[in-house]
Design brief:
Blueprint: E1 7-8, H1 12-15, E2 28-30, E3 43-48, H2 63-71, E4 83-89, H3 95-111, E5 115-119, H4 125-136, E6 140-145, H5 162-168, E7 174-182, H6 189-197, E8 201-204, H7 205-210, H8 212-220, E9 224-227
Parallel strand pairs: 2-4, 3-4, 3-5, 6-7, 6-9, 7-8
Antiparallel strand pairs: 1-4
Length: 240
Amino acid sequence: MDIALFFSPLKQSLWEAPYSHASFFSQIRAFGEKIPEYRDAHIAIFGMSDERGNPSNKGCIEAPDAIREKLYSLKKGTGSYRIADLGNLNPGANLEETYTRLSEVCRTLLEQNILPVILGNTHDQDYGQYRAYQDLDKLVNFLNVDAFLDMEEETPVPSQKHIQDILLHEPNYLFGYTHLAHQTYLIDPDSITALEKLYFEAYRVGKLHTHLLEMEPSIRNADLLSFDITAIRSADAPGN
């Protein structure tokens, strides 16, 4: 499958900026004039450009490039990883089609032992990423970092119920689920009870501060890790 058809290039100002030779950008292949060779990469970065999962979060479509502006300027690491930035995934005609595209791209990359790193957009995109493991017929350990549990049953907003969708998805390929950094006053206690009945784990943000070592096995064993910026205190994430 040629996943290049699903992507749009980076805006010119990103790949033509005068980055230092010691910058992160200097050691990656980025989608400027043409999509980079990615089949021998260890890591493939790409952005999401579909904000329909949360209509109230206007402007999140700009998040991938905003992240890149900071990421590219950082100093390169000492590892010998081959990294490709594939640009931004084009949205589908509807949200379900976007999930399908995301699933197909992640499956294709994982089949080639390439780790997908996805930047930006609404948190419901986890659902599309999770579905890649169904296509691979592989059980998955999912680690989610979020102030909310996103297990609402009666909501039209996909980003508020995507974890519920993953838990109920058939066929079920979820081997383990760990939720970190929820805030008690933002979640329904019944949701915590539901996770416990399924033998899944949820650690509130206060316990995360004092018992971080307890979470280490879950973090180490995760196949899929998702991080929502709501888990960052507002003083350090004023744009959230």
